[in-house]
Predict the 3D structure of the following.
Amino acid sequence: MLTLNALAGATVGALTAAAAQSDVRRMEIPDYISIAIALIALADHFWNGGSALLPDAALGAGVFAAGFLCWLRGWLGGGDVKLLSALSFYFGLGGAEKFMFSLAVASILLGLISIALSLTMPKAGADGATWRGSALKQPMPYGLALASATLATLVWAALSP
């Protein structure tokens, strides 16, 4: 039987997959995805009694503040920051540990893949010459790591007793 919590998780998973696809294709995560996830988190809190609403909202706000500082430094895109804070609100303090661990693993894998691709794929320069760029200076579609971490966390939570 499909519960509202399972429906919320499936919807959040689908939304993050859409965010990843958009980020890979256009290096942009639409705002409506982050807004929808935040609204699902809010509805989920009310459905489940709302007792953890304030701590979980504070977590989301704190993650947004830290992400904003990363955005100012050019380390994260604005869409990444908004999606990360909405997901932090959704998973809340109860799921933050699993989500942040999954995100760390997904981020490392994304970074390694990006480095490997930058070393093996020739890029055309302005003069038509090919060169290998530095992965450290190339933007990465971080929405892909966020979506992977979200799906891993949802599966992990579903399999946990």
User: Anything to note?
Assistant: The two ends are 17 Å apart (CA to CA).
